[in-house]
Every structure is written in C-alpha cells, then in structure tokens.
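Re-run requested by the PI after the first attempt was lost when the workstation crashed. Everything re-entered from the original request form. Ligand of interest: glutamine.
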Amino acid sequence: MTRYIFITGGVVSSLGKGLASAALGALLQARGYRVRLCKLDPYLNVDPGTMSPFQHGEVYVTDDGAETDLDLGHYERFTGVPARARDNTTAGQMYLSVLQKERRGDYLGATIQVIPHITNEIKSFMAEKDSTADFVLVEVGGTVGDIESLPFLEAIRQFGNELGPQRSLYIHVTLLPYISTAGELKTKPTQHSVKELMSVGIRPSILLCRADRAIEEEERRKIALFCNLDVENVIPALDVSTIYEVPLTYHREGLDRQVMAHFGIRDIPNLDLSIWERIVKRIKDPEGEVKIAIVGKYTNLADSYKSLNEALVHGGIANNVKVRLKFIESEIFEREGTAPHLEDVHGILVPGGFGERGTEGKIRAVQFARENKVPYFGICFGMQMAVIEAARNLCGLKGASSTEFGPCSEPVVGLMTEWVKGNALESRQEEADKGGTMRLGSYPALLGKGSLAAQAYGAQAIQERHRHRYEVNITYKDQLEKAGLLFSGLSPDGKLPEIVERTDHPWFLGVQFHPELKSKPFEPHPLFTAFIGAALKQSRLV
Ligand code: GLN
C-alpha cells in the first residue's frame, strides 16, 4: 500500500521545504521503507531549463534527461533514489498537456476548466508514481496563499480525500520569526498560514516550525491550540550548521515518530541513523582544510551551483577535510589578472556555464592552473574552456573558440548537430527550440586505460549526466594530444570527447558531463574525491 505525504510551505519562501522533504525521505528509509519524492512547481515555465540561474538556481538533470527543480537534487542526495523526469512537474507542463489534449479533441467538446481538467492532470501525475514505493512524498512549491498554487492545493486536497487519512498526511512547513524588540518568537504568521490552508480545505496534521532559536513549550502549545493539533505534532525545525544534520535533528524532535503515529504504524525504538551521524561528524570535525576557487558567472547566488557545492563537501568528507570555497566572478581576471586571486588556492574549478560573458577570464584561470600546476577540474563549460586554452596557447591556434559565441576561424568547440542516443540518432538544427533540446541525461563513456579518469573511477566504462549543446570538436584531437591534452574519455562511437586530461600535470581534468549531480554524502563522487585529494596534496606543498 502506497501512502502519500503532502508537504506545503507557508509564511515565506525559502524555508527549506525541499530539504525537509528529503530528510523525511531519509528517515523513512532508515525505517526500512521505499520512498519516492516528487515536486509540483506552480510556475508557468514548462521546465526550469530555460530559466536563468539567477532566477531559479541550478537546473537539476535526471538520468532520463529532464531538466528539473534543484530540490530533486536534495531528494537524490539524501535518499540515493535516482530522480526521474516524472518526479517534477510545473503548472506550465500541466496546462500544456491539457491544451494539447484539447486540440486533439480528447475532451469531446467539453468546456476545459482549471477544476476538473488541470486538477485531474495533477492528480494523475501524483497517482502514477512508483507503485512499489511505501511512501510518496509530494512537495508543493511556492507559498500557501499564492494564486499560482491554488490548482495544486486543490489537487492534493482532492487526492488526499480520495485516499483517506490512513493513506495521506499533510505536513506544513512554516516560520516563527524572532522579533527582537519583543524578545520572542512570533506564532501569528503560522496561525494565519494554517488558516489560509484550511480555507482551501486542507488541515495539516503536522507543522514543521522553522526558527532560529529554541521554541518554548508555551509557544508550541499556543500553535497547537489555534491550529487544532496535538502539541507533539508541532515540531521545531531549528537552523543547523550543515544540511546533513537535518535528518538527525528532525528525528530528535519526533518528526518520523509522529508520521508513524499518524498512519498507525508502530514506532521503532533506537532507530539506526549512524550513517548520518558519521557524515555530520566528518563535516564538523575535519582533520584539515583545502581552499578551492570556483571561477564562474553566477557566483553571487549560491543556489546556482547547489549540487556542485554539495559534491565538493562530499569530496571533503571522503578526504576528511573541510573544503573552503572561494567564489570568483571570472570577469575580474580580465581586469586584474589571475595571480592575486588564485595564488592562495589549492584547486581551481570552472563549472558549467552558458554564453560568452566572462569566458576570457575562465580561460585565464585554466592557464594559471596549467602553468602553476594547481589541480584543475573543468566541468562541461570548464572542459570546453580548457580545450580552447590549450588550442590557443599550446597549439598556436590563435582563433580557437566556441561557435557558441559566434563564427570563428578555429571552432575547437562547436554545435552538436547529431549524436547517438541508445540505438537511435538524435539530431538538432541551429534554429531549434531552446527548451529541452540539449544533449540531456545519462550517456555512456569509455575511458582510456591507465588514465587519471579511469584511476579515479576504478572502471573503464561509466554513465554520467549531460546538459550541453556544444561539444569539443574531435577533429582537433591529434593536435591537442600532441600538446599534452589527452582525450581520455570518449562516447562509445568515438565521436564525442567526454573527458580530457593533462599528462604533464599533477591533476588536470575536464569532463563534458556533470558529475556533481550524482554525488552523495554517503557515496562521494570519485572525481570529487580525487580532485579534493589532489588539492590536499597541493595544500601540503604551499
Ligand atoms: N554552454 C555549453 C554548451 O552548451 C556548456 C553547457 C554547460 O556547461 N552545461 O555546450
């Protein structure tokens, strides 16, 4: 029997509903259950793929090639369950699909309305989830009270009602702001938020109350009284120093126990959470520290590199060191040079990116890493920059560039117009739609024997997730290899370069895919483990 837990948010956005859902997922797994997490996003974009990282943060890519909300990254990092395309939907997707059906004539002349057509579409999205899952956790994006959320709230109300209370549970995440002049945490916004939810017919059974300090019993009682709840179901969710502590603190406050109680399932005393205890201990009590420069364009919004930041933390866990990140806006190198900013770091990472702005600075960062033998990790765009740098500075191809920035005399990185997907050929034209048309999702690559990459993976064949439109031009392979840039990973047909590395450098690697998407705290990605390991060695040299 699959049970559904719906998670909504109130008072303000950014309360960490995604993390809360992911942590609850992990706690249910610790109790031996199979979980599936999914997210309903109320905005009208069909997916976040075309949204600016400044607006939406990172775009998380699934194995099956969907561009999804970054909360799916949290779900996967906490539960290890690979996210799928159908674990995230948006109002845009729901409307698009209803309107396509309307055009096809599927509704046989009916008047198409938000209720029931859009809500039914949302309900069938939820109903088709993993039938093998014991619990499906459905997070509703946005904040209760938003106009956009209404069809989603109506859909979870109807769906929960159809399932009945034995198979459904509503959890509401709220905020208790601290008012310094009064010297207390305020419960009123939470009361109002619950009222708002009740006005659309949803009565939450558990409240997760975010606060920056301890919530007094008195306040919990007050909330319980006004929101029709048992005081045990008013659960404090205090700020923590690392996100991996969230499962432990929620458990301590009784979240999973109360979830079990709601469903009438017997509690397990002394739940084994040692996996999370070990992770938190490693993070809080490291043996050393390395400093990594992230040279990018979206550096002032931490959410744009969410998975990357986490994968670096995981690399630190694997090496028992703290990873200190130094975000550098690449354009600064074009004005001030690299040395003053990069001299003190133990590793340089150029992450994924789009568009020409800031690329000259990124290329300079690659040059600095190569010449000064500082460990370099180029991810997607960062690999393309490494190839352009070698072409220009080592092969004498002054006009080397990417056609992403316009026509050039030496297109060492060019638009991909066809590639093999499974047994079929995918092709794209220059003027294709921008949404959902990149080379997306999991693709295999074969690694060169004895290469740095093969050593790190301890394997010859790998599968990694991609999100790119341009690709290193294989026709430059021989020239670049002569200059010491080895093509150590290729697509199985040998046409698409997947990994490059330097043979004359302690650790210099560029990958066309996004390894950060698959890293987990309990299973750090081998390339991040190796990169932080190399940075640790570097830190002992300087
Ligand atoms: N802009 C580059 C491309 O489309 C790199 C993309 C990325 O870094 N994800 O190929």
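Saved to the shared folder this time. The chain has two domains: 3-279, 287-541.
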